[in-house]
Each structure stands twice: as C-alpha cells, then as structure tokens.
C-alpha cells in the first residue's frame, strides 16, 4: 500500500472548514479566531500533519535544505560540528544534506555539483586537504549561493568564517612541552597548503622562539591527507624516529594524525611519555581513558557548528545583499594529561 501523507484538504474535510481557513489557521493568521486555530492545530497534531516541503519550496522559492561538506563524518571533531549545525537547522525547519570528501579535491567538486543541482539554500563547508583551486566555490558564491566556511577556510572568498584560534592553542601546547623539559620537539601536520596548518605551525614556532629554541624544518613533517591514510603517518613518523637525534616529544596537528601516531607508537613499543611526549588535536572523550591518558588540544566543535549554521541562516533569510561578514575565532581548550608529562 502506498503511504499518503495527511494534507490540508483532509483537515478541512474533517473539521467542516474551507481549505483557505485551515491554511490561514496553520499560518497563525490574525484573520482566524484563536478557537479555530486551536481546533485546527489540535487535529493536525492528531493526524500527524506536516507541511509539504515541495509545495513550500515552490511558494517560498526555497528548498528548506542546506548542504554540509566535511572531510570525514567519522572524525569526532566533524561529527560534533555537524551536531551543532543540525541543532540550529532543525529549529529552523531545514533539512541537512551531509557529504564527506575523504580529503579528495575531485570528490569535493562532485559533491558541490550534486548539492547545487538539488538547489540547496546554502552551504557550510570545510575544504579538503587537496583543495588548492577555489574557482568552483568562487563561482557559486558569485552567483549568490550563501556559503559559510568553518575550520578550513578560503581567504579569497568574502563571507562568514568560523575558525579555531589555532595559533594560541598550539602555542600553549608546545610551551607546556618545553616547561616539562622536552628539548627536541617535532610536529606532524596536515597538508602545508591548508590555512589551519599554517596557523598551527605559527603557534609551534612562536613557542620555540620565545624559549630560545631553534626552529628546525627537519622536525616538521606533513601528511597531505591529514592522517586518513595510515601509511602516510607511518612514513613521516619513521622519518622522525630515524633522525640521529630523535625527537623526545611530538605536537600532532590534526585529530586523525593524533590517533594514528598513538597507534603506531604502541605497535612499536615506544613508551609514552618516558621515551616520547605526546600532545595533539582531538575531540574524542576516549583520550582520557587511554593508558597513558592523552594530552589534547580540544576544539569547540559543537559551538562552531551552531555559529556556522546561525551565520548561514542570516545570509539565507536576509532580504538584502549582505556585505559585512564575520570572522569568528573560538579559543580551544588545552587539556594536560599523562602523555606529555615526564
């Protein structure tokens, strides 16, 4: 049997009212008495009536859908951002279409083609680590698609952006390692082309310089796919451990790199923190339950999602062209645990 959703006509027939009266009652029109409004709403709830999104989109010229593009949904940081976005979108009556690039520029392009073919009302995106050509996003933005960037943003496109204060977070984390007597601190970062990588390394360099420690490029390694390819992390970690003077501490500049590095060190029976200290980006609660517990730089992911969605809806619902944009920078939380203390 084919499912048929309840309609305004069903409500009108059951209550002996005209379709226009029911429609205005559901829209809370001043033309309809409070008693009739209550009667209509009560019956609508009783039969589980929901407005037809197709009809609404035709009337309002909106699809009541937004697109969200991240690198990996399973990443705890991105899943928490998505939860924040959906918490705002659901209150607004919008559906959220979530896609993941797996750090692929080609896949990102395909996703953008698909989402815009579905006529989404707006887009929230954190670009992939492979993305260096922003022409597709620039074209969509110039055509009027409301776009908000978060975490991995594009400087060239003038719109709302929500980021973490990456510099201060990594600065505090590196300074903590220095204060705990680590002398040769290495960093494993995401793709060097990403905005977040540049900011995070600036924090690392600043802490070294303030403590009269020489910045050594040989102690900085990059993972083009941000830890999504385990062998990439294994390769750069092996390079660091093969140094004549091995690093005695690691600052890990992405969630996936942190997870993979810990796994590889355990596999190699390298003792943390006695042989090597560890502090890295992570939004996983499991880091507190590991042995040893892991020091982390925790981003305010849920709040980042809420703010991104709120800013997007301000663009979507604006009656005039928006020319003033916000750059919201959220301070991360540096949580010190056993992995970074000798």
From TrEMBL:
Tell me which PROSITE patterns the record gives.
HTH_LACI_2
Which CDD domains does the record associate with it? HTH_LacI, PBP1_LacI_sugar_binding-like
Domain HTH lacI-type residue range list: 6-60
The record's SUPFAM superfamilies line, in alphabetical order, gives: lambda repressor-like DNA-binding domains, Periplasmic binding protein-like I
User: Which superkingdom is the protein from?
Assistant: Bacteria
State if Transport is listed as a keyword: no
Instruction: Give the record's keywords alphabetically.
Output: DNA-binding, Transcription, Transcription regulation
Q: Which InterPro entries match?
A: HTH_LacI, LacI/GalR-like_sensor, Lambda_DNA-bd_dom_sf, Peripla_BP_I
UniProt-listed SMART domains: HTH_LACI
Q: What is this protein called?
A: HTH-type transcriptional repressor CytR
Species this chain originates from = Mycovorax composti
């Amino acid at each position: 049997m084919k499912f048929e959703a309840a309609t305004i006509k069903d409500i009108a027939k059951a209550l002996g009212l005209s379709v226009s009266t029911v429609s205005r009652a559901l829209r809370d029109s001043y033309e309809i008495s409070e008693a009739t409004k209550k009667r209509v709403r009560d019956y609508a709830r009783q039969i589980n009536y929901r407005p037809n999104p197709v009809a609404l989109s035709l009337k309002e010229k909106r699809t009541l859908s937004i697109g969200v593009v991240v690198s990996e949904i399973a990443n705890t940081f991105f899943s928490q951002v998505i939860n924040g976005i959906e918490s705002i979108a659901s209150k607004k009556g919008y559906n959220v279409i979530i896609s993941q690039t797996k750090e692929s520029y080609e896949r990102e392009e395909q996703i953008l083609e698909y989402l815009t073919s579905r006529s989404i009302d707006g887009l929230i995106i954190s670009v992939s680590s492979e993305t260096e050509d922003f022409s597709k996003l620039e074209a969509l933005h110039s055509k009027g698609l409301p776009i908000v960037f978060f975490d991995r943003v594009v400087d060239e496109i003038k719109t709302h952006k929500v980021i973490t204060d990456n510099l201060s977070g990594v600065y505090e984390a590196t300074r903590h390692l220095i204060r705990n007597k680590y002398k040769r601190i290495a960093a494993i970062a995401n793709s060097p082309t990403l905005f977040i990588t540049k900011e995070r390394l600036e924090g690392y360099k600043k802490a070294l310089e303030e403590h009269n420690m020489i910045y050594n490029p040989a102690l900085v390694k990059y993972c083009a796919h941000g830890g999504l390819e385990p062998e990439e992390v294994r390769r750069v970690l092996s390079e660091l451990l093969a140094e004549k003077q091995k690093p005695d501490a690691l600052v890990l500049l992405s969630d996936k790199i942190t997870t993979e590095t810990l796994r590889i060190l355990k596999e190699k029976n390298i003792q943390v923190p006695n042989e090597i200290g560890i502090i890295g980006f992570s939004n996983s609660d499991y880091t507190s339950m590991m042995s040893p517990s892991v020091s982390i730089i925790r981003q305010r992911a849920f709040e980042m999602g809420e703010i991104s969605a709120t800013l997007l809806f301000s663009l979507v619902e604006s009656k005039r062209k928006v020319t003033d944009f916000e750059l919201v920078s959220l301070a991360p939380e540096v949580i010190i645990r056993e992995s970074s203390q000798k």
